[in-house]
Amino acid sequence: MAKTFPRILACGDSALSVELSDIIDEVISQRVIALTQSLTDVPIDGVEELVPTYRSLMVAYDPEIVRGRGLAAELWHRLDGLVIGDSPSRRFDIPVVYGGTVGMDLQDLAAMKELTASQLIELHSSVEYRVYMIGFAPGFAYLGGLPEILHTPRLATPRQRIEASAIGIGGKQASINSVPGPSGWRFIGRTPLRLFDPARATPFLLRAGDRVSFRPVSEEEAAVVARSVAAGQAVGEMALQ
Question: Is 93 exposed, middle or buried (0-12, 13-18, 19+ CB in 10 A)?
Fold first, then answer.
C-alpha cells in the first residue's frame, strides 16, 4: 500500500514526527525548514525541541502541557498555511586539506573512479552543497549535491575511529565529521574548522538549509586557520561568504 504524505506519526509519548515525503529532495527540505521556522517564530506551548531531517521534522513536547492529539491538530494547521521562505541561505566557504592521514581514501577513490587525485579534488570542490540535516553526532553535517561520478558505497567494515573535521563521501552524500568516532564513510580530506564546539556561544557551525563550498588549501594555510579557531576567533564569520 502506497504511503501518503504529509503524515504525522507518534514517536513514543512525547514526540511527533511530521513526515513530508520518503525521498531526498531540495523542495521537501525547504518545506521541512519552513515548518521549523514557523514553529520557531510562533512557538506552541509545550514544544521543547525541533529536529529537522531530510524529509521530516521531529517535534518533542511536554505531555503535561500539550497533548499529542492537540499538537497534531496545530501542526496540520501550520502545514496547511505553510509558506516556503525566499530568504537567502547562509553560505560557507570551507577550507579543506585533501589527502593526508585523515583523507586516507583519496588515492584509492580516485583510482576507483579512473581519475587522478587532482581531478577528484577539482570535482569535489567545484559544486555547492546543501546541508540537508545535522545529526548522528552533535553537529555532523549531511550534504547533498555530490557530483554523480563520486557517488560511492560506504565501506563494508567501518573504521573504529575517524577524526573530527574529516570530509567524507557515503553513497550519494557528502559529509563533514563533527566529533571523533567510528565510520564507514570514505574520507578524502579534513578542514581546520570545527563543526561542533560546546565552548562557543553557538556550538553548531552549520544548520539545515545552509550552503557549503569546499576550497582546497595547503597545510600551511590550514594551520593559520586552526590557530585562529583555537584562539576563539569567530569561526562562523571566518567561513561565511
Answer: middle
Dihedral angle, C-alpha 133, 135, 137, 138, nearest 10 °: 70
pLDDT in tens, 6-20: 999 999 999 999 999
**Domain stops at, among 60, 80, 100:** 80
Q: Average of pLDDT values for 217-238?
A: 82
Give a yes or no: residue 2 inside a domain: no
Q: What span, in angstroms and rounded, lies between the C-alpha atoms of 88 and 58?
A: 24
SS3 89: coil
- Provide the pLDDT confidence category of residue 231 given band limits of 50, 70 and 90: confident
> Around Cβ 131, how many Cβ atoms within 10 Å?
22
Range of the domain at 174: 91-239
